[in-house]
Amino acid sequence: MSLSKMNQRKSKCYCGRLQGYDVCCGSVHKDITQALVAEDLMRSRYTAFVLANGDYLMKSHHSSTRPIKEKKSIVKWAKSVKWIKLEVLHTSKGLASDEEGTVEFKAFYFENGTLEVIHENSAFVKENGHWVYLGEN
Questions:
Q1: What is the pLDDT of residues 60-88, one digit of tens each?
Q2: With contact defined as beta carbons under 8 Å apart, do 131 and 37 qualify?
C-alpha cells in the first residue's frame, strides 16, 4: 500500500468528519445506500467534487434533474479548483426515516487564486430506497 493511501485512511475525510475517507465518504462512494441520512449524501457529494468523481456525482443526482450532458464540464471544473473545506450549517428532516430533507452548507475553494464559496440549501429525496440530490432549494 502506498504512503498516500495509508495517510488517506488515517486522516480525516475530505468532508471534514474525523473518520478516514475509506470508512466515511469512501464507503458511500462504493455503496450509495451507506448514506443513511441526507447529510451523509451531501458530504459524499462534496468529497466527490474534491476527487472529481463524475460517475458518483451523476449516480447521486436524482434521475429527473441529473445533468448527464454536463458531466465532463463538471469534472473539468472540479479538477481546476483547489477545494478547501465544507461547512454544514443546518439540516432539516433528512433522517433515515424521512423521504426528503434539506442541508444548508458552504463549500470553500480557490479558483484562479481567489477564495470562493458555494452557499446552498440543497434538497434531497429518496429514490429507489436511497438518498439522492434533487437540486438547490
A1: 999 999 999 999 999 999 999 999 999 99
A2: yes
Query: 101 burial class (0-12, 13-18, 19+ CB within 10 angstroms)?
Result: buried
Reading the block at residue 16, the C-alpha cell is: 471534514
Q: Which amino acid is at 96?
A: A
pTM over 0.85, yes/no: yes
Domain CATH code at residue 109: 3.10.450.50
Q: What does the alpha-carbon distance between residue 22 and residue 43 come to, in Å, rounded to a whole number?
A: 13
Average pLDDT for 119-127: 98
Range of the domain at 43: 3-136
Element (H, E) at 107: strand 100-111
Cell numbers describing residue 21: 475517507
Please work out, in degrees rounded to the nearest 5, the angle formed at the alpha carbon of residue 96 by the alpha carbons of 132 and 108: 50
Query: Is there a contact between 85 and 49 (Cβ–Cβ < 8 Å)?
Result: no
pLDDT of res. 6: 46
> Domain tally for the chain?
1
- As a whole number, mean pLDDT of residues 88-94 equals 98
